[in-house]
Amino acid sequence: MPTPIHELEAELLSLGSADRARILERLIESFEPDSKVQDAWVAEALRREAEVVAGKVALVPGHEAVARVRARIS
Question: How far apart are CA 64 and CA 70, in angstroms?
Answer without folding.
Answer: 10
